[in-house]
């Protein structure tokens, strides 16, 4: 499980006034619509059919997950712990890599973590390595993945370098839109369940559909 507090806060702000409309609810066939009635920004919908759940809307390109006949049951399993992008992304047609992208933030984090680990536990580092690292790596523009890798490959200070270990490092993290979608699915299912538990599902059905 992974927490992404910045995305969680963004999602909460984006959907603070969202309301749920149940467009269809027939066993495993569901169509839920979520939107602020005063604005179309950040709307999204969740659609299920046996073995699949699709989420699409104003954020991201849309995602289709496939695992269990009842995909609400699949996502409910992680409710106590929040979202689980690592496991959920495995159930996408394109797999986990389809929703990951190069992250400069993650690269910088890994570089610092590696330096701290070596300094504390792996026999230390040459004097002045921290300053050299700030000057020749962390102060550089690392927004482009190819450029960032070249900077790391070229860095060396009195024998301390990263070149031999770079193949083990993964600088890719989940795309913000995918994480937003994960929060949307978890929140949307929870809202649907609350409505059903209180017997209020008819209030969420459009008047024309209920008549």
Short description:
The chain is an alpha+beta fold. The chain has eight helices and nine strands.
Low-pLDDT stretches are 207-211
In round numbers, the mean pLDDT is: 91
Q: Estimate the global geometry from the Cα principal axes.
A: elongated
Strand composition percent: 15-25%
Span between termini = 43 Å
Q: Which value, in Å, is the CA radius of gyration?
A: 22 Å
Structure commentary:
It is elongated, with a radius of gyration of 22 Å. Strand 7 and strand 8 form a beta hairpin. Mean pLDDT is 91; it is low at 207-211. It has helices spanning 5-14, 71-76, 85-88, 104-121, 129-138, 145-154, 176-197, 207-210, and strands spanning 19-26, 29-35, 44-49, 52-57, 63-66, 100-102, 156-157, 160-161, 172-174. It has 211 residues and is an alpha+beta fold. The strands form 3 sheets. A 5-stranded antiparallel sheet has the order 1-2-3-4-5, with helices on one face.
Structural topology:
Blueprint: H1 5-14, E1 19-26, E2 29-35, E3 44-49, E4 52-57, E5 63-66, H2 71-76, H3 85-88, E6 100-102, H4 104-121, H5 129-138, H6 145-154, E7 156-157, E8 160-161, E9 172-174, H7 176-197, H8 207-210
Antiparallel strand pairs: 1-2, 2-3, 3-4, 4-5, 6-9, 7-8
Helix pairs in contact: 1-7
Offer a few descriptive terms:
9 strands; 211 residues; five-stranded antiparallel sheet; 40% helix; single chain; 2 domains; alpha+beta; two-stranded antiparallel ribbon; disordered C terminus
């Amino acid at each position: 499980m992974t927490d992404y507090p910045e995305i969680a806060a963004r999602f909460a702000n984006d959907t603070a006034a969202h309301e749920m409309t149940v467009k269809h609810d027939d066993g495993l066939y569901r169509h839920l619509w979520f939107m602020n009635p005063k604005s179309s920004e950040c709307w999204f919908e969740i659609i299920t059919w046996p073995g699949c759940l699709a989420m699409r809307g104003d954020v991201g390109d849309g995602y289709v997950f496939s695992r269990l006949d009842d995909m609400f049951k699949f996502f409910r399993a992680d409710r106590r712990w929040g979202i689980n992008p690592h496991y959920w992304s495995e159930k996408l047609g394109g797999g986990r890599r389809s929703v990951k992208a190069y992250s400069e933030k993650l690269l910088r984090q890994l570089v610092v973590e590696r330096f701290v680990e070596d300094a504390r536990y792996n026999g230390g580092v040459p004097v002045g390595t921290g300053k050299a690292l700030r000057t020749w790596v962390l102060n550089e523009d690392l927004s482009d993945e190819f450029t960032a890798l070249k900077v790391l490959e070229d860095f060396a200070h009195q024998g301390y370098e990263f070149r031999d270990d770079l193949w083990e490092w993964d600088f890719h993290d989940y795309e913000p839109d995918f994480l937003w979608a994960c929060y949307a699915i978890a929140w949307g299912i929870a809202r649907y369940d609350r409505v059903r538990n209180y017997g209020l599902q008819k209030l969420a059905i459009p008047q024309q559909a209920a008549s």
